[in-house]
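REQUEST ID: PR-0412
SUBMITTED BY: lab tech R.K.
PRIORITY: routine
TASK: structure prediction, single protein chain
INPUT:
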Amino acid sequence: MIQLDAIDKRILEALQSDAKLNIKELADSLHMTKTPVYERIKRYEKEGIIEKYVAILDREQLGSSMVIFCSVSLESQKLEQIKKFSCAVEEIPEVLECYLMGGANDFLLKVVVEDLNAYHRLSSGILAALPYVSQIKSSFVLNEIKRSTVYPIAKD
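STATUS: complete
OUTPUT:
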């Protein structure tokens, strides 16, 4: 784990809230000059603390208003089956997140589609046809209470 000082943490918190902040604005808010702030950000990128910069889109304005969590069980938990399923699910654009789980189900998928018919086509035609799938259980989101991309950064 990389050691972060208080300034590092403030920079990372600010960038998580608004990655489009320019160096001058960020430096001014920290009462610093631009060069050390720029060098710190470049270090975060080089060390992999910052993986990439993205735009967060409003899915409803794009026509994808339905969020579903799918619990997927495989025929067995053999490593080969897990790898084949994992590779296959990476190719499905409607699957936003996929986690290998411990417990009752093998995988948890977060899926976004336009409506129930689109989900039926996806679950029956694509997900059920993935390698080694034995069962899919779906939970439909009724109301999104909290959604965040901001990771909490431990305070000193």
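NOTES: The longest helix spans residues 34-47.
REVIEWED BY: pending
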